[in-house]
Amino acid sequence: MNIQWDAEKYTADFSFVHQYGASLLDWLEGERLTVLDLGCGNGALTKSLAGRGHQAEGLDASGELLETARRSYPELRFIQGDAVRFQAERAYDAVFSNAVLHWIDEENQPALIANVYNALKPGGQFVFEFGGHGNNNLIHEALRQEFTRRGLTYRMPFYFPTVGEYAVLLERGGFLVRNAVLWDRPTELRGRDGLYDWIKLFIRTPFAGMEAALTEEIVRSAVAALKDPLFREGVWYADYVRLWCRAVRS
Ligand code: BEZ
């Protein structure tokens, strides 16, 4: 995971990331838990966790997002750390994570799961959501076609597993999967250029090193091709598929 976030733009235009995450909070069982919000971003969900009476701390790799989080919620503790490499200073009742795990390469997922395991007390719960199998399929296929048309190779930069694939990793890592679901969540993207803005913000690595003019041409062509399936009554939607899970450390 290596991306420079524009914290203000992320918070203003893509607030759905933490607003949708709010109902996942209901999957945490118990009261007044110590919770680590893994990949806390701007801290909005860390604050929601604290608002529910939990003792929540946030961890994120991005200095810029952490700065926003600390400025917004100075009463909360935010720690800088990478999800694959962090070592928790204490054992938590729960680790919570919203819209983060798809940024981690498949080969690094076992290390991440081991870190979460080590950060939990025995019986502690790992409650998370991220992009599951089929997430943004239409968007990635449109980009792939535009790359191919120009003799280029599109490498999908995210990890979107099925429930079965991820459950295997969790069980190998010492977790018991108690609840898991994969569901479609078409997600409104704000603004006339909602899809264009979303692609420019989130899909960076396939365009690394490419001339700006070619990037622009590819993104604009993909957006035009996606108008039919993803633009309805003046509103852009991204074809999100979410994987939600609650797993317990043995
Ligand atoms: C997601 O939350 O599913 C997601 C967001 C940005 C890029 C890729 C996936």
Key words describing this protein structure:
binds benzoic acid, alpha/beta, 8-stranded mixed beta sheet, globular, about 250 residues
Strand content: 25-35%
Question: Which molecules other than protein and nucleic acid are bound?
Answer: benzoic acid
In whole angstroms, the N-to-C terminal distance is 28 Å
Count the DSSP helices. Answer: 9
Helix fraction bin:
25-40%
- What is the radius of gyration? 18 Å
**Arithmetic mean pLDDT:** 94
Instruction: Please give the largest β-sheet.
Output: 8 strands, mixed
- The residue ranges in which pLDDT falls below 50 over 5 or more consecutive positions are none
| Helix-strand makeup class | alpha/beta
Overall, the morphology is globular
Counted beta strands: 8
Order of helices and strands: HHEHEHEEHEHHEHHEE
Lay out the secondary structure:
Blueprint: H1 7-13, H2 16-21, E1 34-38, H3 44-51, E2 55-60, H4 63-72, E3 77-80, E4 92-98, H5 109-119, E5 120-131, H6 137-149, H7 163-172, E6 175-189, H8 194-202, H9 212-230, E7 231-232, E8 235-249
Parallel strand pairs: 1-2, 1-4, 2-3, 4-5
Antiparallel strand pairs: 5-8, 6-8, 7-8
Helix pairs in contact: 6-9
Walkthrough of the structure:
- By secondary structure, the chain is of the alpha/beta class.
- It has nine helices and eight strands.
- Strand 1, helix 3 and strand 2 (55-60) form a beta-alpha-beta unit.
- Helix 6 (137-149) crosses helix 9.
- The mean pLDDT is 94.
In short:
The protein is of the alpha/beta class and 250 residues long.
